[in-house]
What does this fold into?
Amino acid sequence: MAYKVYIIDPTDASDWYELDTEDIDMTHNFAVADVADISVRMDNLTKNLNFKDTPANNKAFGNLFHINREVNYSFDNRLGFNYSAQRKVDCLIFEDGQLVVKGFLTIPQLSIDSNNNTVYNAVVTGSYINFRQILSERQLDVLDMSDLKHQYEWNTVRDSWDVRTQRWNAATSGYTFSPFVKGSGYVYPFADYGFLFHDLAENADINRIPFQNFRPAIYVKEYFDRIFSQPDLEGYTYEVKGTPDLIDKFNSLVIPTNTDRISNKSNSIYAQAQSNFPASYAWGFQDFGGQGDDAFSTRAITMETFTGNTSLLGTYGDIHGLPHTAWIVNRTFVTTGYVKLNIDNYRNLSNATQRLTLELCERDFISPSDPDYNNPDSWTPIGSKGFLIPPYSYATPNTLLEFVMPEREFRKNSILMLRLRIHANGSIMAAEQFLGGFYRWNVSQAMLRLPGAAGALVTFDVDYGDEMVPSPVQGIKQVDFVKSVMQMMNLYVYATKERPKHLVFETYDDYYALTSPLYLASTSLDWTQKIDRTAQLKVKTNLQIPRKYLFTLKDEDKDFLNKNYKTNYTQVYGQFQFDDSYGVTPEKKVEVIFSPSPLTQYVGSKRIHPVFYAVESGQKKPVTTNIRILYYNGLKASNAYKVSKDTIQGDSLNLVDVATGLTAYPQVGNYRYQPGLSNMTPQEDLYFGLAKEVYFPKDPAVDTCPTAYTLYYSGQTTDLVNPNVLYVECEAYLNELDIANLDLRVPVYIDFGRIGHGYWKVLNVDYKNNKDTAILQLQKIAY
It folds into this structure.
């Protein structure tokens, strides 16, 4: 046989080298899965590919063995003098003029033998292995979603359900619209994230929905599109192959927002309130409640000047009758703070040392009509700085009180106030009152700045009317995401030599469709004459079948319903366990990264939806959950509801409706429903097993509908535990044409003579060349 091996620069097909193949020996392994572990996916691999250090090979690999050589990634070329073992190059392997392998070559190591001969030890991998390696250390949140930027307001939310999605056009620096297409961009489904109205009484109306409970969900297909469009995957494409119904299911999958808040970050915004005019603050005996009291008394600080972003802070009202003393937080944000107060000419005419404290205080929204509006005890200090005042102090010099606040959260609709607080002893004051004793301070300047330093980071919640970029889920590797989506639907992946960078995802049943009785006889290849009758043949039963397979989503999550279900049933919602009494190996697990999302329905709503909140002290609280995956089922009928938001109007915090008279809602869940407002009979369940309990009035089909296990895995596990299924390892005379046309989806027929005959799936092929026999791993097709 004669080999020809070419390496090609993937960025420039005109830059290529033919390698010397003198004395070369190689083994090609072709496989797609592992019957010992149905969650494993395999790919083509060429190993033992050892190239001598001939002039041609040294030129192609840029004398890689020379330890003083240097590579410059600023140059585009990847071959010759700039070859790097860290960057894969395209590779074609021909045997006797026939292309047998098309993949990606790397050189994991070099070896130098005792005769000082250098050998390039190369490996050629298939496209899926290469794809997986590129994604292995890359996070989902590096995917660029900036073109999905839109305005977070009602029309955008409503249009996303079935009309259009607003997007950002960087070329024109403006918004554009894309018609609604399932699987493209984002959608705002109906879910309860635990957001509440400030007036808790308003939350009793289950048909009045806080606008913040609408969060964007990104389609799984959009994630796949972004993954495959990354620069390192240039030239890669993909398709999910199957029936129109399967394609629709894949396109319906969404990944909802899983964080307790949606935030933007900026180091260029700030809010600063300050006073620029001197003000005097005085305390007398009457301020401390009389003789014998050990009491505090306070004064609110006026700050009449505001600069910066009113989206963070705004003026609110007067405290203790003093103007410009209260500031409202207009949105939740996290940052540092800085407070300072310049005092001059303070005096203490008592005979005891006293303490003056500067405090930044916070409290929940209170309207001026509330009895506690001017109550100093209704405030909580969140930062302070104090100093001691000597007795009988007169006309003392300037004193600067200042403090830096560490990073903290400032809650929307909370009120901030800067105040002075003095601790005084009433007995001393009583003794001094007849001497005209009292306390006085002149404040020359006061300032509150958020963040504490110019250019510091502010993380602020997205609010109504803001620009929003849907964020990919954080903390998830891209390779794990793709793998888990594949596991949810038991997808096999492969590529053809004609399109080596085009990955095809296909369900197990579709991948092996030609092995069904309908097609078996007409599509199988007869390999009877290829079998080496002189070589050892092994007939095996499957002794690698586990005693049980556990199909499960990620273990318990923080949200209320998942915790409740795990407590009641000590298992994960939607898990399925397949038991085989004849299995011999320990349990195996198919576990995805997604946590389940149990659904509920509030009485009087007719809306079935997921919840993503915890419950603390009897109140809902938004939480960050594990990544979730759900079906988007379009619009479904609902009792009439409206969507509202808290809005400051003057000195009042009121509810303002952004949408009313809504009678349909964008439904998501683990159940898939047919299109149509009234179609609420589940067609299938996205999860592996039926739940032991659901939290909504269920249709009888909930207990009988197909699950992910029955749809995508039952055929495979039935094959594995079939007592008539055998496995054969044998040797066969395959040639370069057989390998060039090898398709593991196609069954083969083999008559083994006296031990019988049958149809077989080809599980694994180890091929060297057309002179040596190949080793086959076969699985009998039994019905």
Remarks:
- The longest strand covers residues 630-649.
- The chain is about 10% helix and 40% strand.
- Residues 539 and 728 are 5 Å apart (CA to CA).
